[in-house]
Every structure is written in C-alpha cells, then in structure tokens.
Design brief:
With about 270 residues, the chain is an alpha/beta fold. Helices cover about 35% and strands about 25% of the residues. The protein is built from ten helices and seven strands.
C-alpha cells in the first residue's frame, strides 16, 4: 500500500495529459479489463443505480460501457488529468477534475462507485474511504487494479542492468481487502486474473506503455536516456520471454467488488 507524494502525483498527471492523443488506441488491456469488471459485477436487477461515479475515468471508456448497461443512469466522471476529461465528456453526463482520494461530493451521492485500473496510482486506503463516504447505504463498489506480477518480464529483463526501478510498487490482494474492510465496506469479492498483450519487439512494448501514460514515474525513475549497451542487454534479456505471438507484457489484474454496509459509519 503506497501513497504518492505531491511531486510524483504531478508527474503522473502530466504523463496522462501528454498521452491523451494516443491513449485510446493503446489502451488494449484497459478495455479488456473494463469488460471483465462489468461482466463480473453481480447486480440484483431490482432497479439500476441512479447515480454512478467513474473514479479515474480517463477518456470515458468506462462511462460509455456503464451507460450501455444502465441507459437511464447518470454517470459522473472524475479524473485528475483535465485533458482526459475533454474526451470523457462524450460518454459521461458530467465530468470534474479531482483526485479520487479527495472527492468533491456530498456523502451518499452515488449508488455505484466504479474505477477501472486507477487504484494503482493512489493510496487505496484513502480512495476506498472516499468511496465509502460518497456511496449510499447499500451502494456498491467495483474496481480493478494491478498486483505485483504486473510487468514481471520487464522487471526480470532490466534486473542487473541498472539501479533504477522500472515499474511501480503494486499492492497485494490482502492489503486491498484490509483497506476495503477499514473503509467500512463488506461483501468483499476479489478475483485475480492474468492478461497479456504481445508486441514484435521491446521498443514497441515500451512505446505502448508510454502511449497510455503509464511509463515509470516513480521516485526512483530514470532522469536520462538509457545507454546503448544497457539497452542492448535489456532487449536481449527480454527475448527469453518471446512466444510465437511476440514479446509479452503481463498484467496481474485484480477485480474487486464490495458493498457499503447499511450501518456504516459513513451512513
């Protein structure tokens, strides 16, 4: 479980701002995981949620799929990258620039809090506390995030090449379950899946990560270009993972579901 410092949050936001033009074409895993998150969302069909929050909405893909499932719902998109919101407005009923760790909404404002692959950029404890605060009693949370096996091939290929970290720290499921419980959420259901996308070479793989704004922005991130010798070593090391489909980028995905208890302290 981690909390990004203010300077690092700014770097994350700036990276997503720069990626706005390329995000949708590169967001293969984001769309795939969004489909799975909605598919596994068990909802008693005794009425659709009237108000839905898409927390970390990006360019609005999630808002669009939520509208297709519940056409009568009002979907609000929140993201801390304003350039993303300019695109999200085509699918969301309203959009606000805000940090999902500190939402600008009154308590009990939403029946569903949805977040597709945003929690890894946050302090999950703070995000889930805010989710519980803005949910109605009995409201639901549905989220996806990344676990430590994400980019395992990338870490292995770059290990020993230099002293820099090349991926984020990702939370383990038990820590996320604890964060949900501490927020007063119950009925917790966690599903872990592996997804992979394949590329012809390492440059194409890293370009795809950059195109969705997810290049390394951690505090141990590189400030300059990698030398040619180090690059050749990393590229050669990655080749051990090649399959007939190409070089894999693995995503260790967690789908999470919970409910705000009727007697929650946030009621």
């Amino acid at each position: 479980m981690h909390s990004l410092s203010i300077p690092i949050k700014r770097r994350v936001r700036d990276a997503f701002e720069r990626a706005v033009a390329t995000y949708d074409s590169a967001a293969v895993v984001q769309r795939r995981v969004g489909d799975r998150l909605l598919e596994k969302l068990a909802w008693t069909e005794n009425g659709a949620p009237e108000n839905i929050l898409d927390a970390g909405c990006g360019t609005g893909d999630g808002a669009g799929r939520l509208h297709r499932r519940w056409p009568g719902a009002r979907v609000t998109g929140v993201d801390f990258a304003p350039a993303m919101l300019a695109l999200a407005r085509k699918n969301a009923d309203r959009c606000l620039a805000a940090d999902i760790e500190k939402l600008p909404f009154a308590p009990a404002s939403f029946g569903l809090w949805w977040s597709n692959l945003s929690i890894q950029w946050c302090d999950a404890r703070a995000a889930f506390r805010e989710a519980a605060r803005v949910l109605e009693p009995g409201g639901r949370i549905a989220f996806s995030t990344l676990c430590p096996g994400t980019f395992a091939e990338l870490r292995a290929a770059f290990s020993g090449i230099d002293r820099h970290r090349h991926t984020l720290h990702f939370s383990v499921p038990d820590d996320l379950r604890n964060a949900l419980e501490q927020a007063g959420l119950g009925g917790i259901r966690l599903l872990r899946e592996r997804h992979a996308v394949f590329y012809p070479d390492l440059r194409a793989l890293l370009r795809s990560i950059k195109d969705i704004g997810a290049q390394n922005v951690g505090e141990e991130g590189r400030q300059g270009m990698m030398g040619r010798s180090a690059w050749r070593k990393a590229a050669a090391a990655y080749e051990q993972f090649r399959t007939p489909d190409g070089l894999p980028a693995s995503y260790d995905v967690l789908l999470g579901y919970a409910e705000k208890c009727e007697d929650s302290r946030f009621s």
